[in-house]
Amino acid sequence: MNARTAILAIALFWPVQSLSQGFAGLGIASDDFAQPAPQPVFNFPQDHGAHPDYRIEWWYLTANLTGPDGTPYGLQWTLFRTALAPGTASGWTSPQMWMGHAAVTTPDAHYVAERLARGGVGQAGVVADPFEAWIDDWALEGPTFDALAMRATGADFAYDMQLRATGPLVFHGDAGYSVKSGEGQASLYYSQPFFEISGTLSLPDGEVAVTGNAWLDREWSSQPLSEGQIGWDWFSLSFDSGDKLMGFQVRGDQQAPFTYASWIEADGTLTAYTSGAFTAQTLKADTVSGHDVPTGWRVQLPDKGVDVEVYALTPNAWMDVSVPYWEGPVTIEGSHTGVGYLEMTGYD
Amino acid sequence: MTRAVFAALLSHWWRNPLQLFTLMSGLALATALWSGVQAINAEARASYDAAAATLGEGRFDQITRSDGGLIDQADYIALRRSGWLVSPVVEGRINGQRVIGIDPLTAPGGLGPVTMDGGNIAAFLGGTGQLFARQETFDQLGETGAEQVVSADIAPGTVITDIGIAQRILDQDGLLTRLIVDPVQPVRQAKLDTVVPYLTLQAARSDTDVGRLTDSFHLNLTAFGFLSFAVGVFIVHGAIGLAFEQRRGVVRTMRALGVPLHRLIVLICVELLVLALIAGVIGVALGYLIAAALLPDVAATLEGLYGANVGGSIALRPVWLASALAIALGGTLIAAGGALVKLVRTPLLASGQRRASAIAGGPYNWVQPAVAGALLLLAVLLALFGSGLVAGFALLGSLLLGAALALSMILSGVLKVGSTLARGPIAQWFWADTRQQVPGLSLALMALLLAMSTNIGVSTMVSSFRLTFVGFLDQVLNAELYVYTTEDWQDRAMLDTVSNRVGSVLPIMSTGSTLAGHPAEVFSARDDPTYSENWKLIEAIPDAWGVLARGDGVMINEQLFRRTTLQLGSDLVINADVTLPVIGVYGDYGNPLGQAIVTEELFRQMFPDVRASRFGLRMSPGDVAGLRADLIAAGLPKGNLINQSGIKAFSMSVFDRTFTVTTALNILTLAVAGFAILMSLLTLAALRVPQLAPVWALGLTRRQLGWLELGRAVLLAVLTGICALPVGLALAWVLLAVVNVEAFGWRLPMFVFPGEYARLGLFALVAATCAAAWPAWRLARTPPSDLLKVFSNER
């Protein structure tokens, strides 16, 4: 990835860095975009599709997988949408831009691919019903949001997966209105954490049949972070007890981190915790691709008796894409055990 | 002490301003020519880089339509959705400027306007859009409604913009010209022909990319620059050698007074360094002027020969400045090295007197003849066994250098013969004294030899090329009128208009291809006597045109013939279904690509999608004007009708501009050589007084001595000129038969132009006479008291 393309992609796709590093605005005031409002009313299946009046949006799937010999794997499929201006248009004049990231993590390797696309010409997009999200030959599609097929290819890997939802959608924050900072920046945020997933990974050493669980995040906003927030650490943890925990902290360059957590029971019942209830402290760090990145965390949610240590399955899960970050599978020890996914931004 | 020593050293230059001038101007000239050529090369390369960076041509594989048409944008999307990482390009011309639309999101790394960054990406992608180009391009382009961003990084004559904007202003909505293929593709993707059957993948054109094509041209320029530099260094070497010789007294005195040798050496080095830097700066300034003056012609040459666009103005590049100064310093070091070594070796109590004999050479030196012999032997070996462009230029170098080093021996020999034939004391003294002067003048004479032989060689090449080229144009441009059509109705209108009025209509169809592993074009030829009557084949089987017409063979151009192992009778694969024997080879000057001709029927079978868009019409020349008017009346655009004489005139103008640069450099080199003679004679003049004084004392007048000096210079110039002739002809042969074949793929017949050589000889003679006139005049005016001083006891 050359430097210029990287700058381009940062400018287009990374609101965090855009805001804190002076790429702000892209010439268009954030006010022109629709803003998330409290007490959102979701309308499905339309809301599974794109919201072009908002500035950014993503369809973010991560999965913890196991091979026939018990080897753990991680998988990521993400489609980002960002808009230079609100609204749509057909042809190259569309202000909608798309970015896809796909990755497979094995215990000793991390395979990454990236795609960029303009909206309006058919190269990438999302249709709500029947659901289809695609960029180039990558796709996440199915007759309904509960039964999806997923594929992606890179220069050295590919995968084909089938997904089946075994539980309901869950809505974070206040019924899907997810606050991200003390100043009230927020996004609309729901998840499908109950996917069963199976399929085939095509890796340089051959094909591997895998099964496991996947977690799909849907989030859109126009300015999710406030100025001075430099990055976040996001955990999605699936405990062997059947309970799940989604927690994040948004780090600021001055103030204490802003935290949030969703406690999700096996039946989909969600308890939201506002800033301070959930904490995450670094236990160890590794130098990954020249970046110092925490790869061991102590995660606590005292209200639910959670006090666990979370370690990266593969410390080298650096996403060496135009907007670099760390994303990979984790293992959980302590008061609870299980597996999960960790995303960390702002460490480059 | 340092200051005093330095002042003593510098005082020499105050007392000998002419020597200082010689040194400085020699160095400045050498630096100027060298750096001027380098500046031109750097500018041209920057233009190619800009072109490569913006277009990705040559670096990336491309997908195009087999028939050369436009690609439906939906097919591009289909390819992306089948796993092909390709990026769309729209290309067209507005007012002669090349407009290129790219999609920065999918373009492989490094493509696109260099100034684009996060701050203005939204402006590039959206709204009214942005165009990136040089100011002169915008001046030609006119108003398009998009914002104009001036950028020197864009190739000349090129406008870069977003693909959507380009489609809009070129009126090509939903259509693409070609697709750039990312070098990294996913592990799996559908086969290209199963996704979009009408597209073909073309490998990166590494073999014909502009940089490589033009390498030989730049190597040529560099060789010229280096030649000039060598001549300049000869001048500097002479001046420094003389200065060291003249300062022997000063040096001896200072060393006797206790100045350590190493300090003396350091101070002399510092002195030379300062002089070299000053001369280098002057040289850089002159070089800039030379480059600025020559660049438009170079640009025209590159465009004419290779279609490469080069900007018309020189930018000052720090690398260039540094390299020019470095070459000035390096040249001084080379020129002064020998003198410094000699100084170190001189015993403290050696004579402090100036010695004309030292300038004149001293004991017999066997190194120079040995090196000359070795170089000439190397040249012969390279001519016999060498291959490749580098070997060709090594051959050139060793030939020229060997000849230059051998010159003084040859001149000595000739003068020895002359002196044995001389009758009478004055004639005998003249021959002997001339011979004695040869070593002192040898550097200047070498410069003259190099300049003259280069002139002979290059002018022979250019003139031979020109003769051949004119003949080739007559052969190729055999139709009286050429018609270009872009629409089917134009074809019909043309055929209706010309029916029964022309001898024959020759459709010309061509398509890009790969032949024998080289990028090439396949052309069609209709069975018509025009071809067999006009085309001269370099090699052919009997009745080659008849065999071609029956579809039983293929003719190839000389470039393809020489680049491959193809022989007459070898099978050439045209496409998967057609393989034909080679039945003839034709000359095809000025074309970088390989080419093959098959009969029209076969061509139409193989490439059914290619439409004939060019037609040659045969008729009597008197009918051309009337038919042309009728074709225009039938609706064909005037620009699509080109008569034969027009193309020929255009081709010849391109050709002549091509070699303007060569001619200019030739003249400059010769001028430098003339200057070298002048300076050598001037510096020698003062030293020769002791040799001339006895002759004067014996009764020759100063006037007679002056005339004899002039005659001597003319004699040496004539002898050098005679030596230059065979060297120049050998050079011409190397250029035509070795360098051309390697660089361009064609071999040219060599023609000899005695008249031109005579004119050149006359010019060299005039230059030498002019150079010698002033020293001779000064000699004739030498005060008798100066001559008398020679006989005083302390010289």
Overview of this protein structure:
The complex is a heterodimer of chains A (348) and B (795). Chain A has 348 residues and is mainly beta. Helix content of chain A is 5%, strand content 55%. Chain A has a single domain (3-344), classed as AttH-like domain (AttH-like fold), CATH 2.40.370.10. Chain A has helices at residues 3-13, 15-20, and strands spanning 56-66, 72-83, 96-106, 109-118, 124-127, 132-135, 138-144, 147-153, 158-165, 170-171, 177-179, 186-203, 206-221, 229-239, 244-252, 258-264, 270-273, 279-288, 291-301, 306-312, 318-319, 325-334, 338-344. In chain A, the strands form 2 sheets. In chain A, strands 1, 2, 3, 4, 5, 6, 7, 8, 9, 10, 11, 12 and 13 form a 13-stranded antiparallel beta sheet that branches. In chain A, strands 14, 15, 16, 17, 18, 19, 20, 21, 22 and 23 form a 10-stranded antiparallel beta sheet that branches. In chain A, β1 (56-66) and β2 (72-83) form a beta hairpin. The two termini of chain A are 15 Å apart. The model of chain B is unreliable at 114-118, 206-210 and 354-364 (pLDDT under 50). Chain B is α+β, with helices and mostly antiparallel strands and 795 residues long. In chain B, strands 6-5-7-4-3-9-1-10 form an 8-stranded mixed beta sheet, sandwiched between helices. In chain B, strands 13, 14, 15, 16, 17, 18 and 19 form a 7-stranded mixed beta sheet that branches. Chain B is elongated, with a radius of gyration of 33 Å. Chain A binds chain B through residues 1-2, 4-5, 7-8, 10-12, 23, 26-28, 84-85, 91-93, 95, 97, 113, 116-118, 121-123, 134, 136-137, 153-158, 202, and chain B through 73-74, 77, 80-83, 85, 103-106, 109-110, 112, 114, 116-123, 125-126, 162-165, 167, 173, 184-189.
Please supply descriptive tags for the structure shown above.
heterodimer, A: 348 residues, mainly beta, 13-stranded antiparallel β-sheet, 2 helices, 23 strands, disordered N terminus, B: 795 residues, alpha+beta, eight-stranded mixed β-sheet, seven-stranded mixed β-sheet
